[in-house]
Automatic annotation (TrEMBL):
Residues 11-217, 614-810 form the Aminoacyl-tRNA synthetase class Ia domain. InterPro entries: aa-tRNA-synth_I_CS (IPR001412), aa-tRNA-synth_Ia (IPR002300), AB_hydrolase_fold (IPR029058), Leu-tRNA-ligase (IPR002302), Leu_tRNA-synth_edit (IPR025709), M/V/L/I-tRNA-synth_anticd-bd (IPR013155), RBBP9/YdeN (IPR010662), Rossmann-like_a/b/a_fold (IPR014729). GO terms for molecular function: aminoacyl-tRNA deacylase activity; ATP binding; leucine-tRNA ligase activity. This is Leucine--tRNA ligase. It is an enzyme of class 6 (ligase). Keywords: Aminoacyl-tRNA synthetase, ATP-binding, Cytoplasm, Ligase, Nucleotide-binding, Protein biosynthesis. GO terms for biological process: leucyl-tRNA aminoacylation. Its EC number is 6.1.1.4. Residues 854-963 form the Methionyl/Valyl/Leucyl/Isoleucyl-tRNA synthetase anticodon-binding domain. Belongs to the class-I aminoacyl-tRNA synthetase family. The gene is leuS. The keyword Protein biosynthesis applies. Pfam families: Anticodon_1 (PF08264), Ser_hydrolase (PF06821), tRNA-synt_1 (PF00133), tRNA-synt_1_2 (PF13603).
C-alpha cells in the first residue's frame, strides 16, 4: 500500500484536534500522571532538531500512560521573555510583542505537525499579562518575606547585551547568551536570597529520582563545603576607637560580660564606656536614648556594642544623631518580645517602645553593622536577629555563647567581634599551624578600612585596578602565574601560635567565595605554594604523608602496597596523612585534627565551625525592556524598613509594560523604562503621594521558575492555580530537559517551589519527582549545528519530505537518549523505509500465524514496554523494526497480532499506527489498552551460542534453550569450523552453561 505521509499526517492530526483526545479531564478519577518537558523559547529560527527529541520521547511516555489507564497531563507553553527577541526586534525596528506572537505561531504550527500529544487547552505564555500577573505576585511574596532585597554590588555586565548577568549566566568569562565581553560594574540590584535554601536544595535531592549526573551538577553548583571561619587579629592596639556599651534588660554596667570586656579592651589600649541606663527593669527606650545623648559624645571613631535590649536603644538612638559612627555591633538583639522562646509575659518590654525602626537611617549613620546571634539562645529566637540583619544589610554571625543569650562573665566571641581582624574561611583547619601568610581578595572592604595603615597604597590601588579587568575564570586559572602585592604596614597575629604574619592582596582569592580572605598554607595547597615560591614566603609542613622516597620523587603508599607511582613536589603535599609540627594536633589524622582544631577555636573565641557555599544570592534585576516589570514603587514617605520600597497591591497587578516605540538599552546601565516618565511617575499605594516605579525588569528565569504550576489551572483569573488542583497534580511525575539547564532553570525552579511551599501556596517541597535529560542532536560530522557553519537541519523540511512519523522515529532511534548524537540522513531514509513496510502489513494478514511471529509479538510488547520506562528509545525502535522483519520472514500475521502491533507502534509513530489500526480495529489505536504479553510465549525456544576452543570462539551453534549437555556437545562437535580445532586433539574438559557457554579445553 502506498504511504502518502502528507495525507495521513493531516488526516489524523485533524481528527485528534477536533475530538480533543489530548485534553486532560479534571473530573476524571483515574490515577494522575503529570509529564513535563521544558517549554521552549520561541526564537525566530523556529524549532531546531533538539526540540523534537525531548518532546517526542516524553510523548511516547505520555501516550503509553494513557493506554495504561492514567489521566495524563502533558502540557506546553512558551518561555517568551528574553534578550534574543528584544535584540531582534530592535534590529528590525519592530516591537517585541509582535515578534513574540509571530514566533509562537510558528512554533505551535511546527509542534502540531509532529503529532505531539500536548494538551493545547493549557497553553501558557510568560509574556501574557494574565500569566505574569502571578509572576509579579510571587515576587511580592519574596519581598514581603524579606527574601527580595536591593543591594549595591559589583555585577557582571555584558558590554554587548548591555545587561547585568547572574553568576550562572557567565560561562568561561563571557556572556552565556551572546558570547560577549563581561566586565564588572557597581550597581544596585534586586537580589533573591536563594542561599538560605542551599542546604535544602542539596539535601532534598535524596528525596527525588534524578539522573546521578544531574544531581551531581546541582550539588557542585551549590558547592557546599564544611570547615571553619578563623579570626586573625590585626597587629596593633585599638586606642584609636571609642567603645560604648549598652546593656540588656534588668542589667547594668557590672552585669554579664561587661567588666571582663572592659579589662580585655584596656589591655589592648582601648576604652569601653558602659552606661548604666535608667530604669533598667521598667525601661522607656526614649528616655534611655535621651540619657545616652546627654552622657556620651559621639564621633566617627565610635563603636557601639549592645547586648539584647541595648540594641533597641541603639537603633532608636542612631537616627537622632547628627554624627555618623564607625560601627554598630548588636549582640542577641530582640525585635519582638511577644515572640520570645520562653513565652513569658514581659509587659515592661512590650511597652518600652513601639518596636519599629528606621532601618535606612540606621544604615546611614553606621559605617558598618554586625548582628550576632546565639545558637543556644533560650530567649530571642534566631529568626529575630537574622531578619534584623537582612533589614540592615548587616554581616550576620551565629556563635555559641558560654552561657545562653551571652550572659557569661566571659564571652570571647564578643571580644572577637570588636577587635579589628581578618576572618578567613578554610576547609582545612587541621593545617592552621602551617599558615604562613594571609591573603585578601582585591575587592575586600578591609583594604579601604586600613588605608591609613597601608604604606604602599599606590601599588595596592594599581593592582586592584588591574584585577577589575579580569574575569573570575581568569583569576582562578590554575595554569597562570600567581601575582599579588603585600600590604606593607598591615600584619595579623596567628590565632594559635601568636606569630606575626604578613598580609597580601592577590587576585586568586575571590570575594565571591567564603569571606574573601584565606589563610595561606603553601605546604599543602597548590595555589598557595605557587604564590609562596614566587614571592619567597615561608613554607611549613604540617601534614606528613605515608610515603616511600625514591630518587624521582614521591610514591604514595596505601595499606602497605605501592600503587601506580605518582611523582609530586615534596614541598606541597595535598593528600591524606597525619599532623606534624602542630602541637596538640600531632599524630592525629586529618578528620580528627579538623574536629579538634574547631573545638579549640570555638572554646578560645577565635573561630567557629562554618558551612560555606559556592552559590550566591540570585541577581534578579535586568536593565532591559522585554521582561516582567518589578511590581514595586519607591516612596520617600513610606516603608522606611524597606528603604522606601512599597509593594503594588494585588488589585493593581499586573503592572504591564508600556507600549512604546523606543526601548533600546542604555549605555549608562539604566533600564530603558527609566526614560518613560509617564510610566515611571505614579502614586504610592500606601499614602497616595508621589512615587516612582522600579524600572528594572525580572530575568527570563522568573516566568520559567513556576510554569509547571500554572499548567495545572492555566486560565484561573483569581489565583495562580486552585489549591485542590495543585494537590491533585503536584509533583510533576516525570520531567525531561536539557543538561544545559540543570544548574540554572532546574535550581531556580526547585528553589521557587520550596519557597512557595514554605508560604503554604503549594503542596509539595520538591516540584519534580523524576528528572531526566537528553543529549544534543549534532550535525552529521559530529559538530554542533549552527547557521554560521551552514549545517543546520530544518525539521520542517524533513516532515515535508519524509513525514512526521519518520522524523519522530529518527529522533528516538539515532542513539542512546541521554547522549549527544549526530543527525543521519541515511537514518532518515531508513525510518521512512520501515514505515513503508508497516503500511504493507494489513496486506499480510492471515488466519493462522507461525509460532515465531507470535513469539516475536510477545517479545516486542515486553521489550518496548521496558525500554520506554528506561528511556531506551533507540532499542525500542529497533525492536519494532525486528518485529516487522520477522513478519516478513514468517509468512504473515493475524488480525489480532496486527492490532497489538499497531498499539505498540502508536506512541512512536502515531499517524501511521492509526492508519493501520483503522483497517483492522474500531475507534483509535491510542485509546486502546496497552497490550499485555505472555511471559511464557515471550521466552526464546532456541539460542545461538559461540563455541570456544581453549578460550577462543571457533564457531557457533543454535540450541534449544533447554538442551542437555550431551545435546550441546554433539551439536558443537558437528560444527565444521569447530571440528578443525578439535581434530587430532584430546578433549580434557567440556563446559556447558545453558544459554551462556559452550567450551572445549583441548591438548
Amino acid at each position: 500500500m502506498k504511504y502518502n505521509h502528507k495525507d495521513i499526517d493531516a488526516k489524523w492530526q485533524k481528527r485528534w484536534m477536533s475530538e480533543g483526545v489530548f485534553t486532560m479531564d479534571d473530573a476524571s478519577e483515574k490515577e494522575k500522571f503529570y509529564c513535563l518537558v521544558e517549554f521552549p523559547y520561541p526564537s525566530g529560527a523556529g524549532l531546531h532538531m533538539g526540540h523534537p527529541r525531548s518532546y517526542t520521547a516524553l510523548d511516547v511516555l505520555s501516550r503509553k500512560r494513557r493506554m495504561e489507564g492514567y489521566n495524563v497531563l502533558y502540557p506546553i507553553g512558551w518561555d517568551a521573555f528574553g534578550l534574543p527577541t528584544e535584540n531582534y526586534a530592535i534590529k528590525t525596528g519592530r516591537k517585541p510583542q509582535e515578534v513574540t506572537t509571530e514566533n509562537i505561531n510558528t512554533f505551535r504550527r511546527q509542534l502540531q505537525s509532529l503529532g505531539i500529544s500536548f494538551d493545547w487547552s493549557r497553553e501558557v505564555n510568560t509574556t501574557d499579562p494574565a500569566y505574569y500577573k502571578w509572576t509579579q505576585w510571587m515576587f511580592l511574596e519574596f519581598f514581603k518575606a524579606g527574601m527580595a532585597y536591593k543591594k549595591a554590588m559589583a555585577i557582571n555586565w555584558c558590554v554587548r547585551c548591555k545587561i547585568g548577568l547572574a553568576n550562572e549566566e557567565v560561562v568561561n568569562g563571557v556572556c552565556e547568551r551572546c558570547g560577549g565581553e563581561v566586565e564588572k560594574r557597581d550597581k544596585e540590584q534586586w537580589m533573591i536570597a536563594i542561599t538560605r535554601y542551599a542546604d535544602r536544595l542539596i539535601d532534598d535531592l535524596k528525596t527525588v529520582d534524578y539522573l546521578p549526573k544531574i544531581a551531581k551538577q546541582q550539588e557542585d553548583w551549590i558547592g557546599r563545603s564544611e570547615g571553619a571561619e578563623v579570626t586573625f587579629a590585626l597587629e596593633g592596639d585599638v586606642s584609636e576607637y571609642n567603645f560604648l556599651g549598652l546593656h540588656a534588660f534588668c542589667d547594668d554596667s557590672t552585669s554579664a560580660f561587661w567588666p571582663w570586656l572592659q579589662k580585655e579592651l584596656s589591655t589592648r589600649g582601648g576604652t569601653l564606656t558602659v552606661l548604666d541606663l535608667p530604669n533598667s527593669s521598667e525601661p522607656t527606650i526614649a528616655k534611655q536614648v535621651q540619657y545616652i545623648r546627654e552622657n556620651y559624645t559621639f564621633n566617627e571613631k565610635t563603636i557601639i556594642l549592645t547586648h539584647s535590649l541595648g540594641g533597641v536603644a541603639a537603633m532608636k538612638l542612631l537616627p537622632e544623631l547628627d554624627q555618623s559612627i564607625k560601627k554598630l555591633i548588636l549582640i542577641a538583639p530582640p525585635t519582638n518580645p511577644s515572640r520570645f522562646m520562653d513565652k513569658k509575659p514581659r509587659p515592661a518590654l512590650d511597652a518600652c517602645c513601639d518596636w519599629s525602626f528606621d532601618y535606612q537611617a540606621i544604615k546611614d549613620k553606621a559605617g558598618s553593622i554586625i548582628v550576632i546571634a546565639d545558637e543556644q539562645d533560650h530567649i530571642v529566637p534566631l529568626s529575630q536577629p537574622k531578619q534584623l540583619a537582612d533589614q540592615l544589610h548587616a554581616e550576620f554571625f551565629i556563635f555559641k555563647s558560654n552561657t545562653p543569650h551571652f550572659n557569661a562573665v566571659e564571652e570571647p566571641v564578643v571580644l572577637r567581634s570588636i577587635l579589628p581582624h581578618v576572618t578567613v574561611f578554610t576547609t582545612r583547619p587541621d593545617t592552621l599551624f602551617g599558615a604562613t601568610y594571609v591573603v585578601l581578595a582585591p575587592e575586600h572592604p578591609l583594604i579601604a578600612e586600613l588605608a591609613n595603615r597601608i604604606q604602599n597604597k599606590k601599588d595596592v590601588e594599581a593592582y586592584q585596578q588591574v584585577t577589575k579587568e579580569k574575569t573570575e575564570i581568569e583569576r582562578g586559572d590554575a595554569t597562570k602565574e600567581k601575582t599579588g602585592v603585600m600590604l606593607k604596614g598591615v600584619q595579623v597575629i596567628h590565632p594559635v601560635t601568636g606569630e606575626v604574619l604578613p598580609v597580601w592582596v592577590a587576585d586568586y582569592v575571590l570575594m565571591s567565595y567564603g569571606t574573601g580572605a584565606i589563610m595561606a598554607v603553601p605546604a599543602h595547597d597548590v595555589r598557595d605554594y605557587q604564590f609562596a615560591k614566587t614571592y619567597g614566603l615561608p613554607i611549613h609542613q604540617v601534614i606528613e604523608a605515608p610515603i616511600v622516597s625514591v630518587p624521582s620523587g614521591i610514591v604514595h603508599q596505601t595499606a602497605g602496597q605501592l600503587t601506580e607511582p605518582i611523582v609530586v613536589d615534596v614541598a606541597c603535599y595535598t593528600g591524606e596523612g597525619v599532623c606534624v609540627n602542630s602541637d596538640f594536633l600531632n599524630g592525629l589524622e586529618i578528620e580528627a585534627a579538623k574536629a579538634k582544631m574547631i573545638e579549640w577555636l570555638e572554646k578560645e573565641g577565635k573561630g567557629v565551625r562554618k558551612i560555606n557555599y559556592r552559590l550566591r544570592d540570585w541577581v534578579f534585576s535586568r536593565q532591559r525592556y522585554w521582561g516582567e516589570p518589578i511590581p514595586l514603587v519607591h516612596c520617600d514617605t513610606c516603608s522606611p524598613e524597606t528603604d522606601g520600597w512599597v509593594a503594588v497591591p494585588i488589585e493593581q497587578l499586573p503592572v504591564t509594560l508600556p507600549d512604546v516605540e523606543k526601548y533600546e538599552p542604555t549605555d549608562s546601565g539604566e533600564s530603558p523604562l527609566a526614560t518613560i516618565t509617564d510610566w515611571v511617575n505614579t502614586t504610592c499605594p500606601e499614602c497616595g503621594g508621589p512615587a516612582t516605579r522600579e524600572t528594572d525588569t525580572m530575568p527570563n528565569w522568573a516566568g520559567s521558575s513556576w510554569y509547571f504550576l500554572r499548567y495545572v489551572d492555566a486560565h484561573n483569573p483569581d489565583a495562580f492555580a486552585d489549591p485542590q488542583k495543585l494537590k491533585r497534580w503536584m509533583p510533576v511525575d516525570w520531567y525531561n530537559g536539557g543538561m544545559e539547564h540543570t544548574t540554572l532553570h532546574l535550581l531556580y525552579s526547585r528553589f521557587w517551589n520550596k519557597f512557595l511551599f514554605d508560604r503554604g501556596h503549594v503542596p509539595t517541597s520538591e516540584p519534580y519527582a523524576k528528572r531526566t535529560s537528553h543529549g544534543l542532536i549534532l550535525a552529521e560530522d559530529g559538530t554542533k549545528m549552527s547557521k554560521s557553519k551552514g549545517n543546520v537541519v530544518n525539521p520542517d523540511e524533513l516532515v515535508e519530505q519524509f513525514g512526521a512519523d519518520a522524523l519522530r522515529l529518527l529522533e528516538l532511534f539515532i542513539g542512546p537518549f541521554a547522549e549527544p548524537a549526530p543527525y543521519s540522513h541515511a537514518g532518515m531514509v531508513g525510518t521512512r523505509r520501515f514505515l513503508e513496510k508497516v503500511m504493507d502489513l494489513p496486506g499480510k494478514v492471515v488466519e493462522t500465524e507461525s509460532e515465531e511471529v507470535t513469539r516475536a509479538l510477545h517479545q516486542l510488547i515486553q521489550k518496548v514496554g521496558e525500554d520506554i520506562e528506561t528511556q531506551g528509545y533507540n532499542t525500542a525502535v529497533s525492536a519494532l523494526m525486528i518485529f516487522v522483519n520477522a513478519v516478513g520472514d514468517g509468512g504473515g500475521l493475524t488480525r489480532q497480532t496486527l492490532q497489538a502491533f499497531a498499539c505498540v507502534l502508536s506512541p512512536f509513530a502515531p499517524h501511521i499506527a492509526e492508519e493501520v489500526w483503522s483497517q483492522v480495529g474500531d475507534g483509535l489505536a491510542m485509546q486502546q489498552p496497552w497490550p499485555a504479553f505472555d511471559a511464557e510465549l515471550a521466552k526464546d525456544v532456541v539460542v545461538t551460542l559461540g563455541v570456544q576452543v581453549n578460550g577462543k570462539v571457533r564457531g557457533q551453534v543454535t540450541l534449544a534453550v533447554d538442551a542437555t549437555e550431551a545435546q550441546a556437545r554433539a551439536a558443537a562437535e558437528a560444527d565444521e569450523h569447530v571440528q578443525t580445532y578439535l581434530q587430532g586433539k584430546t578433549v580434557k574438559k567440556f563446559v556447558y552453561v545453558p544459554g551462556r557457554i559452550v567450551s572445549f579445553v583441548v591438548v
